[in-house]
């Protein structure tokens, strides 16, 4: 009897130890408040220092959490001179502060970084409950203006620090914000009291996100600018974007017309929507204006139909501009319609951009719209590395492939037994 009691006690203790281990793992997998992350003392983990593909370990950004920063790409001649510049007392030691050199071109040049979170000392991904990424000191001069683009993913939001900022922030896709200096005034140092040059992008349940840092120049130049992304929450005057767009779709109907539909979750002093159209994806013209409800916390639905029977181009790009009473505006993600002039059963797909680093847009044949589709990313060894299904597909769908290793892949889309595919290069 005594032996039996001892066995029961041992079993009970073992159960408690296993339960505690499981609970600790679950708490790690969803760890962290994300209210303040410490990016300091990076160590080169793999790749060539300061070159595309290099990965840097930032240990202990939060309790039991490491971060890995990867240089995804360098665009238009941009270079990275320091991955985390804490010299001369500039900025904040806890912030991620890359020194990016402009590409000696007219227009944009920038560096793209991806940030992923892991359980301390392992390769086990971690999801933080919330992350706040605050871009500091986005300033400039007459010929050069700094910009920052932060993609927190769907559900993300942004906040200005002050009602009269030096910067303009545009939401170009759900959770994807680009901030550009507009006044061209240099501000001394990197200071969190310079509210006019700051904004914060935030989201919950974050395991990774991307940052683009660079300049827009009107004259060829190659100065080095220090940027500062402080992973910390501040006090905000309120989200000043006029609308939270929850959906935007474009469907080609049987009458050579495009049905555009969109919905909002909230509207703040919103005046109207302008549907814009392009045949090259660069130069857009106005299609039509739809007045908004104005102020609402309920779901609001809108629509507009565009006649494309006389359009000669085989591809049409649509986007939605939301404009508030103070003329602030934001752009939606672009939707693409393909018009087949010769063969309505053309099974080709269009995957872009190619090469791609983060988000891949896939345009399907017109007669596959509103049907159940399967999207697969297949490695050259035949292994499917990513798979998505859409029960009611629009003509353009988006896949996030930021987590895939660089290399060549095949995008395969299937619909009712029919298959179309295209090769892409992941940078």
Describe what you observe in this structure:
The protein is mainly β. The protein contains 1 helix and 30 strands. Strands 1-2-3-6-13-8-11-10 form an 8-stranded antiparallel sheet, with no helix packed on it. The chain is globular and about 65 Å long. The N and C termini lie far apart (67 Å). The model is unreliable at 1-34 (pLDDT under 50).
Offer a concise description of the structure.
It contains one helix and 30 strands. The chain is mostly beta strands and 427 residues long.
Main sheet: strand order: 1-2-3-6-13-8-11-10
Rg for CA atoms: 24 Å
Number of helices: 1
Poorly predicted tracts of residues: 1-34
The proportion of residues forming helix, as a percent range, comes to under 10%
What layout of secondary structure does this protein have?
Elements lengths: L1 H28 L13 E4 L8 E8 L2 E11 L3 E4 L16 E3 L5 E13 L8 E9 L7 E8 L5 E4 L6 E7 L2 E6 L17 E8 L1 E10 L6 E3 L1 E3 L12 E10 L4 E11 L2 E9 L6 E7 L8 E8 L7 E10 L4 E3 L3 E4 L11 E3 L6 E5 L9 E7 L4 E7 L5 E5 L6 E9 L2 E9 L1
Antiparallel strand pairs: 1-2, 2-3, 3-6, 4-5, 5-14, 6-13, 7-12, 7-15, 8-11, 8-13, 9-12, 10-11, 16-17, 17-20, 18-19, 18-21, 21-22, 21-23, 24-25, 25-28, 26-27, 26-29, 29-30
Keywords for this entry:
disordered N terminus; 427 residues; 7% helix; mainly beta
């Amino acid at each position: 009897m005594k032996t039996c009691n001892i066995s029961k006690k041992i079993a009970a203790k073992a159960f408690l130890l296993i339960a505690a281990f499981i609970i600790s793992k679950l708490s790690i997998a969803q760890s962290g408040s994300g209210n303040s992350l410490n990016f300091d003392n990076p160590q080169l983990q793999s790749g060539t220092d300061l070159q595309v593909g290099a990965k840097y370990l930032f240990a202990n950004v939060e309790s039991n959490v490491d971060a890995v920063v990867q240089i995804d790409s360098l665009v238009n001649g941009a270079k990275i001179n320091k991955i985390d510049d804490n010299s001369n007392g500039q900025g904040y030691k806890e912030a991620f502060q890359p020194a990016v050199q402009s590409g000696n071109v007219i227009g944009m040049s920038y560096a793209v970084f991806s940030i992923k979170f892991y359980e301390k000392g392992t390769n086990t991904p971690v999801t933080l409950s919330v992350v706040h990424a605050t871009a500091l000191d986005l300033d400039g001069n007459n010929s050069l203006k700094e910009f920052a683009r932060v993609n927190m993913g769907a559900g993300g939001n942004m906040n200005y620090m002050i009602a009269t900022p030096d910067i303009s922030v545009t939401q170009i896709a759900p959770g994807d914000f680009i901030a550009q200096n507009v006044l061209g005034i240099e501000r001394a140092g990197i200071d969190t009291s310079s509210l006019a040059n700051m904004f914060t992008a935030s989201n919950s349940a974050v395991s990774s996100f991307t940052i683009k840092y660079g300049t827009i120049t009107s004259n060829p130049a190659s100065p080095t600018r220090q940027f500062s992304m402080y992973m910390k929450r501040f006090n905000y005057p309120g989200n000043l974007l006029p609308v939270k767009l929850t959906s935007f779709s474009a469907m080609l109907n049987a009458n050579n017309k495009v049905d555009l539909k969109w919905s909002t979750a909230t509207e703040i002093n919103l005046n109207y929507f302008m549907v814009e159209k392009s045949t090259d994806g660069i130069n857009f013209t106005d299609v039509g204006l739809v007045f908004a409800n104005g102020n609402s916390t309920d779901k609001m639905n809108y629509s507009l139909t565009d006649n494309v029977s006389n359009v000669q181009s085989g591809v049409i790009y649509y986007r939605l501009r939301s404009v508030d009473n103070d003329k602030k505006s934001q752009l939606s993600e672009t939707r693409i319609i393909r018009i087949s002039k010769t063969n309505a059963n053309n099974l080709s797909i269009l995957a872009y951009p190619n090469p791609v680093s983060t988000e891949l847009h896939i345009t399907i044949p017109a007669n596959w719209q509103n049907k159940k589709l399967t999207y697969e990313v297949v490695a050259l060894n035949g292994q499917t590395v990513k798979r998505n299904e859409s029960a009611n597909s629009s003509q353009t769908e988006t896949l996030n492939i930021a987590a895939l290793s660089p290399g060549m892949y095949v995008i395969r889309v299937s619909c009712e037994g029919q298959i179309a595919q295209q090769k892409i290069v992941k940078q």
